[in-house]
Each structure stands twice: as C-alpha cells, then as structure tokens.
C-alpha cells in the first residue's frame, strides 16, 4: 500500500483553486471508510457503471490519485458541476479527499463498458481519432495528451482507455456545451469543441473497449 | 485522392483552377472545406497563385492502386516518422519523433509539411552549401533535430522514409513554380523588443503543464508524450528550431497543442527567445571553439543564441563539449561536401 504526498505544485491547484495550504497526505485505509458513501454509484470495486440512456458513473479504480483529488476539489468549489456528484464531494474534508483519492488510485482498474455492440467501421474511426487524430478537421489525437494507449500521462492527463463509453461521451459533450470547463488552459475543451457527434460516439466506444492498463 | 490545386483569389471570391492531376477527384468544395478549417483555426487563406496540396492520408493508402509491396514500404516510412524512437540508441539520441515537430504526421500546413521536399529536391541548400537529395534532407533532420546519426543512404529505413515523403506529394508536379501554401514554419513579424522574463512567465503559464517547468517534457512507458524543448533530450544547437524566428513560427502556428494561433506574435517570440536561451547538446559542426563555430556558420547562428551570452543565467551558450546521450560529436553526413565543378557545362 503506498501513501501519497500530494503537492500543491503537482496538483496545479495553487493558482487554479486558490488553495493556500499544502494538501494533506492520503491514507487509503481511511479512504476506504469514507468511500462507503460512494459505492451506490461508483460500486464497491470502484468500477462505476455504464448506464445506457442515463447518467453513467465513472470508473474511479486505478485513476491517478492527484487527478481524483483535483476533481473532488473542483466539485466542492463549484468549478466542476454535477447534481449527482456535488453533494458527496461537499461532504468530504480536504483530508478525506486525499484519503479516498489514495484509496481509489490503488484499486485494480476494471474494464470499460458500453462499447460492446459497436460496429467495426465505428471502432475503426474511433481508433483513428484516439491514436492519430484527424488533422484535416484539426482534431488532435487523444493519445498525444492522454499518453501511450490513452492510459494516462502524469497527474494532469487522466487515463481514458477502459473508461465507460457513456461517461466519456457525457464529458466530451459537457466540454462542448461549456458545462465542464475545469481543465487547465482549456486544453480538453479546445479538442472537444472540434469533434462531431459521430466522432464522439466512435472514440467513446473504442476507448471503452481498450484495456485501462498494459497487459 | 490526389488534391492539387492552384488557388486563385479574385475580387473576394475564390476560384480554383485544377492543375492536371490524372487521378484527381477532390472537388473544389472539398478543398474549400479544408481551407475553411485552417482559417477557422486562425491560419491565413492561400494567396493568389499559391499551390495548395492536400496530402493523402493513411486511409487513402489502403485504397490506393499501387503495388502491395510499395504500400508496405510507405507504411514502414509512416511508422518510422511517427515513432522514430524505435531507432533510439542507433539513429536517435534524444526524445524526439519526426512528428514531434512535423505535426499531423508530416501533413499539416504551417507545421513544415514534409512533402514539399520530395518535389523541390534535388536543390541547393544554403545550410551545407551544396545540392541535396531528399535522403540528404532527411539525414539533416537526423543529425540535428534528432541529435543522431542518420540511417545509411540507400538503407531500408531511408528508402521507407523517402517513400513516405514522396507518397505524400502524390500528384504534385516536380519543381512547381508556384509558392507552396503553408510550407515551413512561417514566422510572425519580429517585434521590436524580445523579453526573456516575459517569455519565462508565459512559458510557465502556457507550456510547462506539458513540457514541464524545466523544459524536459514527459515520457511514459519509455515513450515520448511531451518532447523536451531544451536540455540533453532535445534537438542540438545545429537544428533549425534553434533559430528564434523558426521557433517563433512553430510556436505561433502549433502551440499550445490544439490551440494554434492563440498566442500573440509578441508572446510567441518572447517564448521562443526564452527557449533559445537555454542549453542543449553541442552543434555537430563544432570546431572545439564555440565562438569560432558560431562565426563559421554565421548565416545560421546569427538567428540563434549559440555563442552568445545567455539572457538568463546560462553563461556563454554552447560553450561545452556535451553531446547529450549521443556518444560522439559528428555523424557521417555532417561536413561532407559535393562538388560538380570538375564537370564542364
């Protein structure tokens, strides 16, 4: 079990959330207790759930701890808005945020859902967008920021391979509409705004079918 | 699949006059859409009589009516271009892929698309003072930008890379007379003053999230995600990117990733200036004396900070023997002249 020291600089919170103090160190054991109120949606194994036609719950298991903590702080401060999630973030102290983040980060990542019935042509397009982008539309490949196989790059660029298709789609649409804008420097927003609905669907189902960790 | 057009603007309306390309079936409307995307991203529209070419994609290659063996070769060239790190330790001694600077797989206008080299070479290059072939041009980027040793001329890897360049130029006439739209990294006008401290501040605000505070970039699972902008794992002092105007042009047109043309001209130049005031591996043309080398290659280094005092705290820039991870100074292709003067006309 590893403890995490989440520094301000690494979180990029110093300027972004205007936090004045260093974030506390997370304890996964304590995080497990705090996480009991999260399981209704994110499930006991942190796998979340793809909900077809409804609101999907993201997989948290295996995500980067600093990334998780940043999102929880953003929900709490209102920088990221979601009616289902915000009340739960609001219940967490800074210490509990560090603890649950450490807890989910050390869990084994589970497979993505929602890409099962996609056609081959759609998956092929999704792969192109994720791996190579479509520069004639100025859509930059996902992996150029989200890292090799889109499994994440550092604390700022979360793994999106093996995330649920419904959740990926909802986030891309939220960036397009402007209802999610907590990314640093509008990096994600600028990409999402250039995507068509078809490409959002294609990349979401392709990513959902990929393994979240190297096999 | 082949889309080569000479673009003519006439009193506000846009006219296309297609050059004779045998297998051209890209419509004017499709070309217009391509240009609309670029202008939406803040790039200038083509000027009158500029050559606009939309290079074929890897999807087009699948459909192409060419020998399957040639397709394999082009695919290998593409793979080498976008994952040049597979040659690390042999031909590449830094964190770069060719596509680290030539964005969009070498196809993007304003990101030094690579196909023009295939239709304009052999030609004289001021940089080495002789007539260069396409292979020599590619070798140049290996020696400087990749801080490496090029694959041998005529080798499988060289053939594959050239085939990829040439395939991208499909349908363009050799030695075109028109100016090529989006060639190179066109630099914005140089502002009167360049500010190191403003460059540093902007760098930390806009670039460090990816390229890291110390310019070293980020690697994950032994693959480059964010290339190094300076330091041992970046291009050496002989690479085109060390000319401040080239870096300013690259940055303005391509960075931050996904947000081209979002910086002002002044901002792009200040960041480029800040970047160029940092250390990097020695220029392979180094004579043992940095000031002498800078003087000898003044047509190049007048545009860089090499051999000058750093505006930061770096001291005399380039005054060292450090070749980065490359265990030697000079690759086989550097300083090798060609001369046809013995041949009478």
Automatic annotation (TrEMBL), chain A:
Residues 26-108, 121-211 form the Cytochrome c domain. Heme c 2 binds at residues 142, 145-146, 188. GO terms for cellular component: periplasmic space. Residues 1-22 form the signal peptide. Keywords: Electron transport, Heme, Iron, Metal-binding, Periplasm, Signal, Transport. Binds 2 heme c groups covalently per subunit. One of its GO terms (molecular function) is heme binding. It holds the Pfam family Cytochrom_C. The keyword Cell wall biogenesis/degradation does not apply. It is found in: Periplasm. Heme c 1 binds at residues 38, 41-42, 85. This is Cytochrome c553.
TrEMBL record, chain B:
The keyword Chloroplast does not apply. It comes from Marinobacter persicus. Transmembrane segments: none annotated. Residues 84-279 form the Cytochrome c domain. One of its GO terms (molecular function) is metal ion binding. Residues 318-328 have a biased composition (Basic and acidic residues). Pfam families: Cytochrome_CBB3, SoxA-TsdA_cyt-c. The keyword Lipid metabolism does not apply. Residues 310-345 are annotated as: Disordered. Keywords: Heme, Iron, Metal-binding, Signal. Residues 1-22 form the signal peptide. This is Thiosulfate dehydrogenase.
């Amino acid at each position: 079990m590893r403890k995490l020291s989440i520094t301000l600089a690494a979180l990029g919170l110093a300027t972004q959330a205007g936090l004045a103090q260093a974030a506390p160190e997370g304890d996964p054991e304590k995080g497990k207790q705090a996480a009991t109120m999260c399981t209704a949606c994110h499930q006991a194994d942190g796998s979340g759930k793809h909900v077809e036609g409804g609101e999907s719950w993201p997989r948290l298991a295996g995500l980067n701890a600093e990334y998780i903590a940043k999102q929880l702080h953003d929900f709490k401060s209102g920088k990221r808005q979601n009616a289902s999630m915000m009340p739960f973030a609001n219940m967490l102290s800074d210490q509990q945020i560090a603890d649950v983040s450490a807890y989910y980060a050390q869990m084994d990542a589970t497979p993505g859902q929602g890409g099962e019935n996609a056609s081959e042509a759609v998956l092929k397009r999704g792969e192109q967008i994720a791996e190579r982008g479509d520069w004639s539309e100025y859509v930059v490949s996902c992996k150029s920021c989200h890292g090799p196989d889109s499994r994440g790059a550092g604390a700022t660029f979360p793994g999106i391979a093996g995330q649920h298709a419904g959740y990926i789609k909802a986030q891309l649409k939220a960036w397009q509409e402007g209802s999610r804008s907590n990314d640093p420097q509008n990096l994600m927003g600028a990409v999402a705004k250039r995507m068509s609905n078809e490409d959002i669907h294609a990349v979401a189902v392709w990513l959902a079918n990929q393994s979240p960790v190297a096999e | 699949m082949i889309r080569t057009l000479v673009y003519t603007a006439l009193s506000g309306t846009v006219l296309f006059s297609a050059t004779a390309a045998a297998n051209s079936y890209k419509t004017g409307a499709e070309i217009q859409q391509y240009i609309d995307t670029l202008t939406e991203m803040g790039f200038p529209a083509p000027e009158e009589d500029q050559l606009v070419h939309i290079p074929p994609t890897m999807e087009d290659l699948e459909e192409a009516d060419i020998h399957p063996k040639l397709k394999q070769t082009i695919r290998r060239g593409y793979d080498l271009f976008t994952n040049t790190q597979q040659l690390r330790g042999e031909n590449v001694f830094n964190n770069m892929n060719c596509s680290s600077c030539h964005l969009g797989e070498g196809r993007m206008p304003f990101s030094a698309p690579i196909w023009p080299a295939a239709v304009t070479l052999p030609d004289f290059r001021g940089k080495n003072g002789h007539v260069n072939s396409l292979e020599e041009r590619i070798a140049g980027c290996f020696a400087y930008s990749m801080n490496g040793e090029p694959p041998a001329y005529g080798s499988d890897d060289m053939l594959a890379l050239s085939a990829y360049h040439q395939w991208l130029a499909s349908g363009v006439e050799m030695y075109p007379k028109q100016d090529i739209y989006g060639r190179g990294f066109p630099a914005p006008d140089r502002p009167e003053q360049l500010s190191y401290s403003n460059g540093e501040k902007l760098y930390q605000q806009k670039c460090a999230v990816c390229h890291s505070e110390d310019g070293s970039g980020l690697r994950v699972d032994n693959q480059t995600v964010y290339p190094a902008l300076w330091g041992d794992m970046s291009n050496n002092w002989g690479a085109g990117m060390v000319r401040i105007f080239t870096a300013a042009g690259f940055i303005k047109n391509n960075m931050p990733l996904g947000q081209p043309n979002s910086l002002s001209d002044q901002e792009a130049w200040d960041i480029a200036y800040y970047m160029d005031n940092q250390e990097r591996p020695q220029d392979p043309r180094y004579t043992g004396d940095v000031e002498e080398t800078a003087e000898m290659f003044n047509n190049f280094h007048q545009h860089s900070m090499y051999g000058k005092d750093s505006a930061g705290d770096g001291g005399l820039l380039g005054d060292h023997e450090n070749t980065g991870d490359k265990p030697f100074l000079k690759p086989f292709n550097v300083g090798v002249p060609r001369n046809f003067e013995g041949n009478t006309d």
